[in-house]
Amino acid sequence: MSVLREKILHVASDLFQTRGINSTGVNTIVAVAGTTKMTLYKYFHSKENLILEVLQKNHQDFENWLSDKLTKNTKKPAEKLQKLFDFIEEWVVAPDFRGMAFIKASAEFPDEENAVHRLSAEQSRQFRQYLAGLAVEAGVRDADGLALQLSLLIEGAMQAEQMKRGCGAIKYAKKAATILINSALKN
Amino acid sequence: MSVLREKILHVASDLFQTRGINSTGVNTIVAVAGTTKMTLYKYFHSKENLILEVLQKNHQDFENWLSDKLTKNTKKPAEKLQKLFDFIEEWVVAPDFRGMAFIKASAEFPDEENAVHRLSAEQSRQFRQYLAGLAVEAGVRDADGLALQLSLLIEGAMQAEQMKRGCGAIKYAKKAATILINSALKN
DNA sequence: TTTGCTCTATACAGACCTGTAAATATACCC
DNA sequence: GGGTATATTTACAGGTCTGTATAGAGCAAA
């Protein structure tokens, strides 16, 4: 994998998050990345293609990081659900946190037929499925229901933290999650 | 208030929600509204100004609708918190629901110094404050905490429903809210 | 009919956008 | 050195964007 390709992906991801996708032109991306449009269009057939790859990379990075944390720091399956929000908080309070990519992408591309919107929706679904897997392992009966509720808290908190840094949304989301998890485990 | 001004506001709001703000040009707005750019720029000094007015109108319409519903359909203060999510659901399942305006606006304008972003953040804060008022009336001790948690559920559910209509997010958000409210009332 | 107001029609300026063409430069492998 | 792949440079086409200038149409009141 070319180093320039990686650089473009990284720079594009950064600019998309800080300035918005539609407000970031390819001219800006290549200027910051220190290359030219010809190189960008060689690796990424179009801007839409670049957006899709950036989204995919961000999502994979997040899920890899999270599942790594979970497998390394927890032993029993039930523990994972409990500690989940500790790691989410760690992710959110990181200085380079800029919100969840697929949430913002779906806002910028509201048309349900649009490729970017569809990928965002798919990633949202995948994330809920991952949470549902944790809930199943923990012995929750309505695993899908709890997963959906936790995803609302997580995505809501990330949205809130992106809108106003340090607003403490993730802390209260964690408290709410504990209550919901305990309630779900009792049924 | 001029009828053309109202028409422009309404059309702009609709297009911003369905196509995105940055993807909607003033040319499109005036064409759909059946007027010209000269008239638009007469009433709204700039496109940014129009965006701000659209946001403000949407937010006021929502809060007015919600508080109307609450005052007309509930009697005791504690009831309002319980019934809140019924009305939110009613709002979300309406066929013309297109997501919460200020969430999408803040995603399209991520810069915290930007006027649109600042208004969005302010509206999010106002909404939480409104919820906190309901929690106080209901006798919740940590009213701000519960309000924040409920706002996460609501905003998360609206985001999810906007991403994929009929995904049932609001139903599970309601269940989660009931648990959280009951838990908060016990403390 | 004249005055005054709102709205329309049309054209334009200047900037930015995505995407491409063609020629040149750099580096590495044989 | 020669050949090859990769990257740069510069320029451009064709489009869209916000915002403005200018001239005229429609209409109501005096």
Tell me about this structure.
Two copies of one chain form a homodimer. Chain A has 187 residues and is mostly helical. Helix content of chain A is 78%, strand content 0%. Chain A contains nine helices and no strands. The mean pLDDT of chain A is 95. Chain A binds a DNA duplex (30 and 30 nucleotides) through helix 3.
The major β-sheet of chain A equals: none
What is the end-to-end distance of chain A?
49 Å
Q: Give the tally of β-strands of chain A.
A: 0
**Class by helix and strand content of chain A?**
mainly alpha
What brief labels describe this structure?
homodimer, 187 residues, mainly alpha, 9 helices, DNA-binding
What's this entry about, in short?
2 copies of one chain form a homodimer. Chain A has 187 residues and is mainly α. Chain A has helices spanning 3-19, 26-33, 37-43, 47-73, 77-93, 101-108, 115-137, 143-163, 169-186.
SSE map:
The structure is a homodimer of 187-residue chains.
Chain A: H1 3-19, H2 26-33, H3 37-43, H4 47-73, H5 77-93, H6 101-108, H7 115-137, H8 143-163, H9 169-186
Helix pairs in contact in A: 1-2, 1-4, 4-5, 4-7, 5-7, 5-9, 6-7, 7-8, 8-9
The structure holds a DNA duplex (30 and 30 nucleotides).
